[in-house]
Amino acid sequence: MNSVVCIAQVPDTEARIKIADGRRIDETGLKFIVSPYDEFALEEAIRVKEAKGGDVTVVSFGPDRVQQALRECLARGATKALHIKGESGSADALGIAKTLAAAIRSVPHDLLFFGKQGVGTDNSLVGPMVAELLGYPQLNVVTHLEVGEGKITAHREIEGAEEILEASMPAVITAQKGLNEPRYASLKGIMAAKKITIETKTLPDLGLQESDIHHQRVTVVALELPPEKSGGRKIDGGDAATAAKEILKYIREEAKAL
Amino acid sequence: MAGVVVFAEVKDGRLKKASREALSIGRKLAQTAGGDLVAFGVDRAAAEEAGRYGAKRLYVAPLTAYTTGPFTTALKQLVDQVKPSIVLLAGTSNGRDLAPRLAARLNVGVASDVDRLEWTGGKLRARRPVYSGKAFATVEVSSTPAMATTRPNAFTAEEAGGETAEVVQIAGPASDDKVKLIETKTAEAEELTIAEADIIVSGGRGLKEATNFSLIRDLAHAIGGAVGASRATVDAGWIDHQHQVGQTGRVVSPNLYIAAGVSGAIQHLAGMSSSEHIVAINKDPEAPIFRVADLGVVGDLFQIIPALTEAVKKAKAH
Ligand SMILES: Cc1cc2nc3c(=O)[nH]c(=O)nc-3n(C[C@H](O)[C@H](O)[C@H](O)COP(=O)(O)OP(=O)(O)OC[C@H]3O[C@@H](n4cnc5c(N)ncnc54)[C@H](O)[C@@H]3O)c2cc1C
How many C-beta atoms lie closer than 10 Å to residue A147's C-beta? Predict the structure, then answer.
């Protein structure tokens, strides 16, 4: 059973975002991490491998810094890594999906894992788009997965409920928190990862036109920070009854919520 | 090539609030982009309500429970037939599932989770929170059609007083042999979900233990809101992840957000600071949550929350 895990490298969730030229974030001094939902995706793929054998290939499209993220995934237990070089920042979600789909075609796979969203761009688009481009079923926002013979069963989180879905393979799964508890890299894993060569490809290697990937369909025209919240009134809540009265007044008169 | 198509989802015989919001902004866009606002759905009973929100026609596909494949095929057929300039889906679970699949099939762009939309210079311009609300991106969708998913609660649902939408039956797509919906399990007695709620009451680690979430639930219930939670409480297993607000939970923007015993870590703030009105209760006067609170109350939640619940109940009884 072979799995491919597509990972995005994103700014650390602790990071303060600064804007470079009105359109991009300023990357100087910014720490990058593997997008948190992708960690659930990777963990699940590793568990499938441990149970059924096969490879776990991690794939990422982005500038050279994403090799760091791929290394980290290898250290946790991925067995192969593929880096598609390019400025993913100037591609829209469909451009990224086309790139990943093209890359995945040449990697043996039964299951494709994604995070349910890339933390930062917060699009929640790429996984289902890859599923469509490859003609596979998609199981989106998955909190539980069982891999059977030739088919998988997944629990999909929806508003106030959960769906149980069954799908044929190959299939795309987007991971939600709760799917598993991701492991940390072990020292042994880190050492082993150093021996694995990260394969690299370019868009032309994949038979793609730069012009179909970059600056197409959806383009960012401005990036701004939200207005500073000035912070409102602060009151002493030493007396609960008085505090409750104040809050109620605020709720009724300002939020107009009762 | 004109008009706006909106995916209109129905729940318990009514259009979902998020769909009503999408129809409302769709109607405004149709005024500038030209053409009609039309709705796509599976329930002809929604025609009257869709009409009130400005839809001229409701295209009904012979489908029932949502699954990706058949819905994508049906909506694709409709888009090919109507040739709209804009396709909108509310950012519900199903809207977020369907939008990317359809966009890839149509080879068009989609802006997700937008909180502002306008049609300008023949293009769809959208604003979307990125980095969980730490920044806002303005994007232009230049494809035809241009697609977007709307963030629940970001647009106002406004009736336009239109007549019942004309129902047009469309052909049914073949069933999907790749995915089967086995079962839908409804959680915790139909609790209001944080994604769509107008009011959210959130609890943090300050609650000390799982059972104390009842304080938050009681207040949420009294005030008619949903229950939110910080990640610390979710990780501790006090409450289900569906309730988590923040960068790795839901990003929410209700009219009123009440946080009790939540410190206001950057990842939590990212998920709620765009709320219209924020009340924070925390015993630590230096808690970062106070930086975004419109009304900050420095005090003990175990005293203040029950008192507030009582006050709300009394106020409602009058
Ligand atoms: C990658 C990553 C992603 C994350 N994503 C999220 C996310 O999506 N959402 C999220 O919430 N967090 C997220 N976090 C976690 C975040 O950093 C914080 O750890 C978490 O939000 C803290 O939760 P808390 O405020 O409940 O707990 P604490 O920080 O422990 O705060 C408890 C607060 O309760 C107050 N308190 C205690 N007793 C009382 C009392 N009796 N009355 C009143 N106040 C009291 C204290 O003063 C304190 O401020 C993420 C972290 C990482 C690393």
Answer: 21
